[in-house]
Model the fold of this input.
Amino acid sequence: MVFVSRSRAKSPWIFQVNAASCNGCLIELLAALSPRYDAERLGCVLVGSPRHADILVAMGPVTSKTLPVLVRAYRQMPEPKVTVALGTCAVSGGVFVGSHVFEGPVGKVLPVDVYIGGCPPKPEAILRGLMKAAEKLEGVRG
Amino acid sequence: MEVGRRLTRLPFGPLHPATKEPALLMLTVDGERVVEAELRLGYVYRGIEALAQTRNIVQVLHLVERVCGICSHAHPFCYVQAVESVAGIEPPGRALYIRTIVAELERLQNHLLWMGVLGYQLGFTALFMYAWRVRESVLDILEEMTGNRIMRGVNAIGGVRVDLSDRVKAKMEALVKDARKWAAFLSDVLHDKTVEARLAGVGVLTRSDAVSTGAVGPTARASGVDFDVRRDYPHAAYEDLRGAFSVPVLSSGDALARAEVRVAELAESANLLEAALDTLPSDRRSPPPPHRVLREVPEGESVAKVEAPRGELFYYARTDGKGFLKRLRIRTPTLANLPALAVMLKDVELADVPAVYASIDPCISCTERVLVVDARSGAWRETSLRELGKGCGAAC
Amino acid sequence: MLALELLAAAPLIATASLLYDGVDRKVRARMQGRVGPPLVQPFYDFVKLLSKDRIVPRASARLIYTTSPLLSSALAVTAGSLLLAGLAGSLRVPGDVVLILSLLTVASLLLMVGGASSGNPYAAVSLARGVSVLFSYKVPMMISVIAASAGGAPLLSVAGAVELQRKSGPLALSSVSGALALASFLLCMPSEGEVTPFDVTTAETEVVYGFMIEYGGPYLALAKLAKSVSRFTAALLASSLFLYTPLGSRPVELAACALGAVVLALISITALGTFVARVRVRQVAGFYLRLPMVLALGALAALLLGRF
Done:
């Protein structure tokens, strides 16, 4: 059983949902996979289907059109799963608070486990946040 | 619909690894052939232009920086020019040069990023890794200079917020040499057999199509449209640097040409950087403080344009004389390029959709800020349906 | 006795396959200038996926969807175990190489059909692509294997080919036919392993993993296991049919054979996949009908000419 929970922490696969982000967070997330930061050395890979994923990384101020997309992606992921809110917009709404399509930060829509602040957060910060999320996965009962 | 054809509807998005950004490309495919492509946007619409009317002129600077995280310098660069021309503020020469230098660094990192994305689309992960590895050295310099990698906040109304130290300048000079090496190497990579086989002749945009769809930037230049805002409407330091760079133009109009233009632009950006660093003026002057800017900008309107990495970026600003904007209108290069994308996707193979989609370097985040866009894209969608509906009963 | 041996061989081939995946990912990462995941990463991935929730899409054909990953991985592991038994000399049946390749083919097909039964349109496109790819590379692969094992006794068996090579040295180095067949086989290996440039059925940016798109948790774990066992079994088959080197004692030879499989896979799967872009579906079929087919037929012709 120890090996199972250990495996979860060692193999966090991420699925990114760009919920109306400006791409700043997205490119920093991708930069975290690039050679200098190399998230794969921590077992972390970016997957393209929510069915394969363990960590949902949500970016951007959630807008009325991305809200259903975000929720659907979350529902499609198999348990155990954790959610990461990446970037100031996902954490609080950032400069987009007050917009008529702003539905609230990610935390208002989904249960968020890890918040990574910054506009955009540096890849180092993203890696740290993902590792926090992986630790959470280790403790989550499947 | 014709009898005997099995058409499948493939939703390419809104969460598709090839688009990354939420955009929905509704494809109707017949086996492997795309018979219809319909782009549905609006996912990244954040109401930025409406928001801009609720914030003061200085706050809007930070808002427009967040239109797009990849060309986060081009937007404020263009915006400050519009506001400065309303207010009649002349920024110091050094500030203009610094804006130009950052703009060229941004082009470098954008084109490298784009090369990486192209590699990823083609399943060529090593290219992605290479491009993103060398891109880090551009970001390092930007970070050392401004404190941030992505949202750099260089521009201020009437000047720049940061200065260029000698240390950073020396690093940039080294970067110029590296950038030429990257460009040479990437050019070799593009002519690798498997890469060439995937890009040559794919998603062709003829010159007349490029003109009639109003394509801009590298997309248009790869189709033989010789236009570059930096040369044809010089602003900031580009006026002085006119002789330092040339505008690469190709005529074949396929995905390979679009890639080659961008690689050639890497080298041109290096030339521009070198020249700008050589002739950097020394009139250091801080921009006027925000409270003075808010007081001093009169009522008026103005337009500005810059050559963002993806093409011509256009701003219209109308101030109310009380420190606020009555109207802000942004036209981004991707918006101009989307109709061209519709032409390119006509009759391509499913396997080529990611490469063609990537080849215009689309930035959906840039494109979707305006109430108008929804209506406009609706109108545009109908034309694209007609253009793309070849062989499809619903559209013909 | 054979049944017992096969049972013992199953975990061995599964472990070796996953370990090779780890080597592949590590080497790939190093070639891209990265550190890469630990060698045991595929085991973490496998265990994690096994422990995850099972989701069956409502639109799927439930029975096919849920059983095909299990059946597919079982078939692939059986194929690998048969190969190990043949290598160890305890399986001496004429035609077992054909059986091994057929099992691998059925394993791939099952997985595609299972994925396509999810009702996802991408999986359907992937199935159409997969079938065309499967038939284009399996033919030269089968011909080259037949050319390699036609000389041994029992006919077309791993044991026969091994014994032949123990007498006269590695086939690929001692005969023109063997060299041609090996070249053809190596070109087919990336397709067996479904890696770039021939991963058109599961390409992420084109068809979002194709038939794997809806599979998650344990189903994905088994599907991935089936893939990696197929990949490694093909490499081991190449190493044992073409490059089995007589070194005196059988354990040493077997170890060398396994090492040879890793090297072959590193060349034709890992290195190739790192430095080229993906090809189009149409190009896959066109490619296999040309060079690998010609090489395989050449191998067969050389063999027949040598006979007479």
Summary: Chain C touches chain A through 32 residues (CB under 8 Å).
